[in-house]
Batch of 2 targets.
Target 1
Amino acid sequence: MKYKRILITDPVHDDGIKKLKAAGFTVEERYGESPSVIKELIRDYDVLIVRSATKVTREMLAESSLQVICRAGVGLDNIDLEAAKEYNITVFNTPNAPSVSVAELVIGLIIALFRHISIGDKGLKEGKWLKKELKGLELKGKTLGIVGFGNIGVEVAKRAKSFEMTVIAYDVLDSALENAKQMNVEPFGPSKDALEAILRNADVITLHVPLLSSTYHMIGEREFSLMKDGVYLINASRGGVVDEKALLEAIRSEKVAGAALDVFEKEPPGKSELINELNIIATPHIGSTTKETQRNASVILAKKIIEFFN
Ligand code: NAD
């Protein structure tokens, strides 16, 4: 491999940097630089690694010598992809890095809902011993409906199976449905009608689709009406996937027994009637906030860069 230079402008985990250095790359870390300084710097580098703070603009790329831009993270919103394509620069990200972290949070939230953990905790802090009131449910034998059977959906399914849940999944991609079949997960889709089967049959529904025009408010008033009475809902995908107004009504009418939300239409949600409901557990978009996600992202990036230049 010819001697290659890498510039990192947002902090990434050290393990990936070590891998790159061991593979013979020259790595320079320059955090907190202004766009004009980064523009100057990337005239002399082959690879640029960023997280979300650095905005990679067309103007920056026009005179760069970059062959690769890497984002340690899931989205690519901070990179001008059209300009990168025009200048023949390959762009990577690390969509798999947070999958296990998000899946573990989802399982934690299902258990927290089924066993009323946050209500019991709140009660005790207020001096109330709610032992009799908080009759819970076991996961064993319940049906989990996974909407969106991609990276995270698959990891959730693996874990739910270890709790002896029945897992059913809905996706629009044939490959995802085939994947489900291989894992002994009952597949529904790709037609939109198949979503109804999940809504009608699941005791708990977890959403793992991206936010697109086709998934915006995909769970709304009509969908809640199709669900089992006393269903539970988890949303750790993107806020707009659930119609929050419809969810508030479904919680108040007890159609939905409880919901856990890690994501919101507006983040942070501020004062919200929804999150003040006792049967709602709300977390501040922490699905991928683990030590492992950061490490995974840097190691995955390092591997991709090494493969690219080999
Ligand atoms: P992925 O791309 O691997 O999987 C998404 C799946 O959804 C794909 O299989 C796709 O075919 C399917 N899909 C797309 N449109 C659909 C539709 N209309 N109906 C049914 N299925 C549809 O993505 P992933 O890595 O599994 O991430 C899933 C979601 O989780 C994304 O929205 C992502 O932004 C979010 N996420 C949240 C956190 C967090 O901190 N809470 C962290 C990482 C990712």
Target 2
Amino acid sequence: MGQNLKQTKISAGDDTGILAASKLLEQGDVVALPTETVYGLSGIAFNAEAVHKIFSAKGRPLTDPLITHVGRIIGESLAALNAHGVIDLEKFSTPQKEVSAKLMSAFWPGPLTLLLPRGKRITDLITAGHENVAVRMPRHEVFLGVLDKLGKPLVAPSANLFGRTSPTSAQHVMHQLNGRIPLILDGGDSQVGVESTIVRIESDGSLTLLRPGGVSVSELEQHLPGAIAKAEATTTPVTVAPGLLESHYAPKTPTFLVNEATLGHIETKDKSIGVLLTSETNWISERIIDARRLTLEVLPYDLEGRRAAQGLFAALHRLDHLELDLILVEDPPSEGFLWLAIKDRLKRAAKKL
Ligand code: TXA
Ligand code: MG
């Protein structure tokens, strides 16, 4: 990757850790930081060398743009984002201004990313040449602490190798990026557990959902009576948001999403199989009778999928570390609330049957 191997250190996300992370970032280095959604691999947005390092540490293609994370000062208002060159208010229509201001005040800090006309200081490298910048204010105190200290925005993709399962703990980051980055700040397990919801605010003020995530469509609708959140069509070109790539979030172990109709298509004889259940019934283990070994993970079931989302990536990481022949994931029976995001991640993590 053209980078020297480094000793990767995990430090506590306390004042000392925040100071050390800020120093490295100021020097143009990259640091993995906790957010409420997943851990991010951060670098100063205005430092091209740092942004390049993010792509190379992850093995990420330059065609996949990065989310710009802002703190409480820069993200305080549209005017502040504009003054710092993150967005360009002159390119906003009036409805775009109104809707983005409303969403910022309702959901920031939190797991909502807005696609807005980009400002002067946002480079092609960050947006992969797109005219919109993706912006969010994360809710984790450690990430916000670093942003406060720097007074500059940080770009940060999820802190995993490109295409692999996202990290929700410092150990998950260590497992994938050890030797590629100098520092990981430990801020505990990510509380939301799936990435931010990404919406584009169109010039007529309507929303287009590009990635379901930690803020559900119904929550968005509650704050914007009248605005329509359109689900992204499956035919969307990958250039719109490569996170929509069909294969993403994937464990190394071959992983399949199954329901009662498709389970029979899987060859299970004498295999070591991990099973991830997303409902309260364990029908999968009952149906597989010829496997060598079954290892079960159960996502706690709740109507809104909050607890399931929280545990989702950790369960996939645990199963992936067991060197199994395959992982079978139960296709979640629900699509409401966070289940939409969970289903989306599982579909992309799985191979086609
Ligand atoms: O919760 C999150 O959003 C996490 C944490 C670390 O903040 N970040 C995250 O970043 O999920 P990443 O890079 O793993 O996924 C960001 C997605 C990618 O699919 C990327 O293509 C899309 O956002 N994206 C970023 N900037 C974009 C832009 N200007 N236009 C379209 N899509 C964009
Ligand atoms: Mg990612």
